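Input chain follows. Return structure tokens only.
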Amino acid sequence: MASHILIVEDEYKIASLLKDYMDNEGFESRIIDNGLEVIPWLQNHHTDLILLDLMLPGKNGTEICKEIRRFSQIPIIMVTARVEEIDRIIGLEIGADDYICKPFSPREVVARVKAVLRRFSQAQLPQTGSDALIQIDPESREVTVSGHELKLTPSEFDILKTLHSRPGKVYSRSLLVTETQGYDFEGYDRTIDSHIKNLRKKIAVHLPGQDIIVSVYGVGYKLVLPDVS
């Protein structure tokens, strides 16, 4: 069954171009051009990924992304003309999985969509001896820490899954991008820091005083599991 892509974009030429490329790649796609229509549509229809423009009439992409994350972890790729790094970080911190700046290559968008869908559907987590403390179900994409469910964005899940697969192994930012995004995108590796920051906050709620995601200065990050014996 073909994956469904929801294109939320109010510029007709851009929306039509994206739809043509998605359809040519075998996806099913739909266009919504007003921010107020997105949530009601999602509550009654299924989609596998959202291409979400930041500047929309009715309701902007930031507000829409926040609302979606209250009830769904569906992958979201934000599309915007804003190029400042702070906007990229904000977009990722509210739950977006990737970020594309206009003007863009439609082929790059297709590659990003395929990569996000691929990693979202992967189920390859090796189990470790930390099951009593951290449990990760790759099929349902659910995580529990000390018996408490952790609400993670798809990107946060994939980063934690990667780190958890080999505790103690140091992953560079660029390697985490490649492992979790499925491609190496220059400039994206610094946004890994934003995802790590959010992961630490969420884990700390259930493991206070234990920072299990450790920074290795000048290299990257590793997962250090506490001794639960």
